[in-house]
Design a protein that fits this description.
By secondary structure, the chain is of the alpha/beta class. It has 12 helices and 8 strands. It has helices at residues 15-22, 24-37, 52-62, 82-93, 116-133, 145-154, 169-177, 194-202, 226-230, 243-254, 258-272, 276-280, and strands spanning 8-10, 39-45, 65-68, 99-108, 137-142, 160-163, 180-184, 208-210. The longest helix has 18 residues, at 116-133. The two termini are 26 Å apart.
Length: 281
C-alpha cells in the first residue's frame, strides 16, 4: 500500500498544457491535487521555443524545476535559427537552480511525415548544447533507441533520463551504461504491456525513475477507448496526481514497499538530474 507520507518526484510532466487547456487556476488546482497525493516535485520539459518561458514560469510558480529543449515532433515548425535562440536562453538562465536539463529532445520514428535528417540535426545540436553547458538531457525515445544511443556514444553527455522507455533489455542496459535512468509511467499499468512490466520488475532498482508525461500517457484506469470517445466521452487527461497509484503498480511488480520505491526513485532522479538535490533539500 502506498502511504500518503511518501514523497514522489514526477520526472516528466507538461504542466504548461494544463494552463493552456484550462487556465492558470486549473493548472494550480492540478498541482495542488498532486501535492496532496504526495507528489513533492515535478520536472517540466519544454518542447519548442513558444513554451520555453511558460515552463520556466510554471516551475518557479509551483516550486518545481524545468528543462529547455526542442522536441522532435516540433522540428517540423522550428526555424533554423531556433537552436541559437535556445542556446542563448540556456546561457541566460544557466545559474537558475531550477533549470535541471536540456529537454525534451530526441528522435521519433513512429509518427509519419517527420524528416529523420532534420530530427537528427536538432538532436545532435542539442546534445552539443548539453555538453557545452554540462547539463544532463531528457530524451524522447520512440522507435529510435539505437539511433539515440549511436549519437550519445559520439557526443557523450553527463547522463539524464530516457523518458517513457519502452525498448529492449539490451537497449535499457546500453542507456544505463551511459549514465541514464529510465522513466516509467502510465504505460506500465497495462497488463498487456508484458515486456515493459518485465523491465520494470527486473531492471536494477537504481535505474528507474517515475513519471506521468501528464496530460499524456494515461494509466489504464483513465484510458478512454475509441468507442467511448465516439460516444461523447472526453479524451483521458493524465495528471501528476496519478503518480502514487502508478508507483503502486511498479512496487507490486518488484515486490517491494512503496516506501522503498519512493526512496530509491527520489535518489535516482537526483542522480540523473543533479541540480534536483539542492531543490529538494
Amino acid at each position: 500500500m502506498i502511504r500518503r507520507m511518501e514523497r514522489w518526484i514526477d520526472t516528466h510532466c507538461h504542466f504548461d498544457e494544463f494552463a493552456a487547456h484550462g487556465g492558470a487556476d486549473y493548472a494550480d488546482g492540478e498541482r495542488e491535487r498532486a501535492a496532496n497525493a504526495g507528489v513533492a516535485h515535478c520536472v517540466l520539459p519544454a518542447v519548442e521555443l513558444a513554451n520555453l518561458q511558460a515552463v520556466r514560469a510554471m516551475a518557479h510558480r509551483h516550486g518545481d524545476s524545468y528543462a529547455l529543449g526542442i522536441h522532435p515532433l516540433y522540428t517540423t515548425r522550428a526555424g533554423d535559427g531556433d537552436l541559437q535562440v535556445l542556446a542563448d536562453m540556456v546561457a541566460q538562465h544557466l545559474h537558475d537552480p531550477r533549470l535541471v536539463a536540456i529537454g525534451e529532445i530526441g528522435l521519433d520514428f513512429f509518427v509519419p511525415d517527420l524528416d529523420p535528417a532534420r530530427q537528427e540535426r536538432f538532436y545532435r545540436s542539442q546534445l552539443q548544447l548539453a555538453r557545452r553547458f554540462d547539463l544532463p538531457v531528457i530524451l524522447h525515445v520512440r522507435r529510435s533507441a539505437d539511433r539515440l544511443l549511436k549519437s550519445l556514444r559520439e557526443l557523450p553527455v553527463r547522463g539524464g533520463i530516457a523518458h517513457a522507455f519502452n525498448g529492449s533489455l539490451q537497449q535499457a542496459q546500453a542507456f544505463i551504461a551511459l549514465g541514464f535512468k529510465l522513466g516509467f509511467g502510465g504505460a506500465v499499468t497495462y497488463e498487456r504491456a508484458l515486456q515493459l512490466r518485465r523491465l520494470a520488475a527486473e531492471l536494477p532498482l537504481d535505474a528507474l525513475v517515475l513519471e506521468t508525461d501528464a496530460p499524456d500517457i494515461p494509466p489504464h484506469w483513465l484510458y478512454v477507448t475509441a468507442a467511448e470517445r465516439a460516444a461523447g466521452h472526453a479524451p483521458a487527461r493524465n495528471s501528476p496526481a496519478e503518480l502514487p497509484r502508478i508507483a503502486a503498480v511498479v512496487a507490486a511488480l518488484r515486490g517491494i514497499s512503496g516506501a522503498e520505491l519512493a526512496h530509491a526513485t527520489r535518489a535516482n532522479a537526483c542522480a540523473a538530474l543533479p541540480r534536483l538535490a539542492g531543490l529538494l533539500e
